Amino acid sequence: MSRLLEAHQLEFHRYGNPVFRPLDVALQAGRAIVLTGPNGVGKTTLLRLLAGILAPVSGTLQHNARVAFVGHLPAVKGDLTCRENLDYERRVGPPGLELAEALAQVGLAGLGSRPSRALSAGQKRRLGLARLLVRKTPVWLLDEPYASLDDAGCAGVDQLINRHLADGGGVVLATHQRHPRVDASQLDNIVLQAGIVEDEQQ
Fold first, then answer.
1. In whole angstroms, what is the distance from residue 126 CA to residue 33 CA?
2. Which of 92, 108, 137 is the last residue of a domain?
3. Inter-CA distances, 7 with 26, 56, 70, 142, 169, Å
4. Whether residue 61 sits in one domain with residue 8
5. pLDDT number for residue 202
6. Is residue 117 pLDDT above 80, yes or no?
7. Which residue among 51, 109, 142, 153 is least enclosed by CB atoms within 10 Å?
């Protein structure tokens, strides 16, 4: 099984203090890693490090596949329609699903012409997740992907993750709410606490 992403002894400081102990992360194709822990312990920081948005104080990071980061905010442009947001995303990477199919898979069928500013918080979350579908990106880094979603929306996220893993992709997600409904044999856990990390990767 190929490694999509590898980090060795990754460390980051905030105001001169370590956020967590030096950490090793290895994401295999077809697997998901769940980051848990109370607010403020570094889950988002770790995701941003893995995405290459932040630079570690020490340690190494190697991407063996393209990476997509979806933050806690959906990062959609309010003045653009749903379709225009996805069309922009599709142009910046190897194309994935057609726009209409991506919208349908996240429960936004028929809303392609609606300005994204007119969407509810849950619909904006769904549109942000649809960005993952319109271009081919093996590694998904997801920060609180279940936020603002109802039960049906959360189940839809689980379906997207399971389909991505079945296609040989990998997922690292941070959550303090729901755990993804993924086969336990495909799942690893990293529990972050203040200045501590408990690595349960298999």
1. 21
2. 137
3. 6, 10, 19, 17, 17
4. yes
5. 45
6. yes
7. 109
Verify that 118 and 146 share a domain, yes or no: no
Strand ranges in 65-122 using DSSP code E only, listed in sequence order: 67-70
For the record, the structure tokens of 44 come out as 């988002």
Q: What is the pLDDT of residues 33-88, one digit of tens each?
A: 999 988 888 899 999 999 999 999 999 999 999 999 999 887 889 999 999 999 99
**What total number of domains does the chain contain?**
2
The residue segments making up the domain with residue 42 are 1-65+138-202
Place of tokens 């990767």: 201
Taking all residues of the chain, what is their mean pLDDT, rounded to a whole number? 91
Residue 71 lies inside a defined structural domain of this protein: no
- Residues 132 and 148 reside in one and the same domain: no
Mean pLDDT of 21-36: 94
